Amino acid sequence: MNPDSIFDIKSEKEFESCALQVFQFQFEHTKVYQEFCNYLNKNPSNVQHIGDIPFLPVSFFKSKQVFSNSHSEAAITFTSSGTTGSVTSKHIVADASLYQKSYLKAFELFYGKIESYCVLALLPSYLEREHSSLIYMVNDLIGRSAHPDSGFYLNDLDGLVEKINALEAKKTKILLLGVSFALLDLIEHTQLSLSHTLVMETGGMKGRRKEMIREELHSLLQGGLGVAEIHSEYGMTELLSQAYSKGHGLFETPPWMKVLIRDPEDPLSALSIGKTGGVNIIDLANLYSCSFIATQDLGKIHTDGHFEILGRFDHSDIRGCNLMIL
């Protein structure tokens, strides 16, 4: 199949058709996924609808090589963060251009051209390790913004505040993107009143602060930064697409990504709208690994199609991409 066709999806019917094609391709070429499907007696002959497709537990990315034999080597490998001594996930990416197209098209869909923003990034915990998919994306967005003040701003909070105030005075559109604890550090350092800044948190305290529910975090950030809404990005190492929230923790996916909710007591069964359960994600940009992922997150889908993340299964380790622990 043509990988670019993934980004041309315009309807539910086109999404399902493309998802079934991707399922067949991955059943044939991703050995670990094929073995998993065979264990469940699922194959292209009896998978006729999205609801029939098996979702690979995200933990397989920690113990197995989830990679398509249609490619002989990886273009890049992303790894997850992890607590000391824990096993990290490894996402082997055959075609980095799919990742680039996914995040560029999704950002433009929700926020417009990245070239119209000055991008200020507060991601210290991610910069401390190699092979972060978030750093890869943000570094590219900084470069594409082409604004001379775009960049990573870490330990110099005085310099960052001075920069923000100068840009605000010029009415420059700013994307301030940060991990939760770094944004909290910023508002404890200085109170701001922002009029031209889009504030986006990527979640996670990374062991630097106590975890808090989304409402508490966003209320503190709204008050400290003087903004009406806190935006959020939902992604993870094992995916090549992101969902975005423009407030209240209600996320939307781009057309090539879909969220389904599974029954925590019966992981092969789906739950209806409004019910809380395990989050399953279809990410068609994951063409050369696995597009059908059963995450360790808990969430629910609302009647308008938005979804929210409500926490994690108790046995799961804490990861950093927009996970608010209850």
What does this structure look like?
The strands form 3 sheets. A 7-stranded mixed sheet has the order 5-4-6-7-8-9-10, sandwiched between helices. Strands 1, 11, 12, 13 and 14 form a 5-stranded mixed sheet that branches. By secondary structure, it is an alpha/beta fold. Helix 1 (12-29) packs across helix 2. The protein contains 9 helices and 14 strands. The relative contact order is 0.15.
Show the helix and strand layout.
Layout lengths: L11 H18 L1 H9 L16 E2 L2 H4 L12 E4 L10 E4 L2 H16 L6 E5 L1 H4 L5 H13 L5 E2 L4 H13 L4 E5 L1 H10 L7 E5 L12 H12 L5 E4 L8 E3 L5 E2 L4 E6 L14 E7 L8 E10 L5 E6 L14
Parallel strand pairs: 1-13, 4-5, 4-6, 6-7, 7-8
Antiparallel strand pairs: 2-3, 8-9, 9-10, 11-12, 12-13, 13-14
Mean pLDDT: 92
If helices are DSSP runs of H or I spanning 4 or more residues, what is the number of helices? 9
- Given as residue ranges, the uncertain stretches (5+ residues, pLDDT < 50) are 316-326
Percent of residues in beta strands: 15-25%
Distance between the termini: 41 Å
Shape field: globular
- Placed side by side, the strands forming the largest sheet appear as 5-4-6-7-8-9-10
Major beta sheet, specifics? 7 strands, mixed
Number of extended strands: 14
Order of helices and strands: HHEHEEHEHHEHEHEHEEEEEEE
Q: Which structural class is indicated by helix and strand composition?
A: alpha/beta
What is the helix content? 25-40%
Radius of gyration: 20 Å
